[in-house]
């Protein structure tokens, strides 16, 4: 999740530099949502003791 959030953040920065404010805004919102969901899942896995598969 965090890697997808980072990818969308990079897309938002590039779109913002190119002047595509609509795409930059949408990509920023998606990145923020994915980041929050990733943090919540990481916290849940930390508290329950689960580990991701190797």
Automatic annotation (TrEMBL):
Domain of life: Bacteria
Keyword Transmembrane helix: yes
Entries under Pfam families matching the protein: DUF1328
Keywords recorded for this protein, A-Z: Cell membrane, Membrane, Transmembrane, Transmembrane helix
InterPro entries: DUF1328
Membrane topology recorded in Swiss-Prot or TrEMBL: Single-pass membrane protein
Cell compartment(s), UniProt: Cell membrane
Coiled coil: none
Entry's transmembrane regions: 29-48
Family per similarity comment: Belongs to the UPF0391 family.
Identification of the protein by name: UPF0391 membrane protein ABC977_14280
Species in which this protein is naturally found: Thioalkalicoccus limnaeus
């Amino acid at each position: 999740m965090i890697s997808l959030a980072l990818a969308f953040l990079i897309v938002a920065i590039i779109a913002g530099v190119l002047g595509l404010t609509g795409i930059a805004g949408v990509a920023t919102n998606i990145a923020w949502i994915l980041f929050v969901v990733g943090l919540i899942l990481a916290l849940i896995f930390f508290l329950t003791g689960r580990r991701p598969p190797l």
